[in-house]
Every structure is written in structure tokens, then in C-alpha cells.
Amino acid sequence: MSKILKGDQVIVNAGKDKGKRGIVSRVLENDLVIVEGINLAKKHQKPNPIKGIAGGIVSKEMPIQASNIALFNAATEKADRVAYKVLKDGRKIRVYKSNGEAVQA
Known about the structure:
Elements (H helix, E strand, L loop, with lengths): L8 E4 L8 E8 L3 E4 L4 E6 L10 E6 L2 E2 L3 E5 L4 E3 L1 E5 L5 E5 L9
Antiparallel strand pairs: 1-2, 1-7, 2-3, 3-6, 4-5, 7-8, 9-10
């Protein structure tokens, strides 16, 4: 079970987009995630009239290592680490390490 899931609000710790916040749109294998508006790259795209794709230079979101992002804690307005806690009824939930509150996903 990954500590960062789709739909989480994260903040970038390292790289060219350090300090920026975004929402995780996809979680890929090998600890890679795609965050909306983060790690953009220019791609030269050929037109494809059959699919209705126009040609030109487009911005594309590229994967970023999960170790370079951290969950954003709205209570403290800072990046925070994540831990797991098992409840009495047997459910396993994610909690912030700084204050022990449950992560709202």
C-alpha cells in the first residue's frame, strides 16, 4: 500500500518545481507519480487528423519520484510525513506523523 494515493494534495520537496503544490492525478509503478501542473515538459506532437489531434508543441506532465514529494497538511500548512494506524475495528488508515490526525483523501 502506497503512502501517496490518487487525489492527494502534495508539495514538491526537490527539483525544479520545489515548493509548488498540486494534486496527484496518477500513481505509476516504481514509486512514480504524476502531479497536475508539476514537472511539465515540452513535447513536439505530430498532427493526427483521424483522432482530431492538432500538431505543434504541447506541454505534458511527466512523472516525478514519490520521494521528491510529501503530503500537504492543511492544518499546519506544511509538508508532512505519513504513517499507518490500525483502528480497533481492524481498519488501516493513514495519519500525519506531526499531529496524528487522519489524512482526508
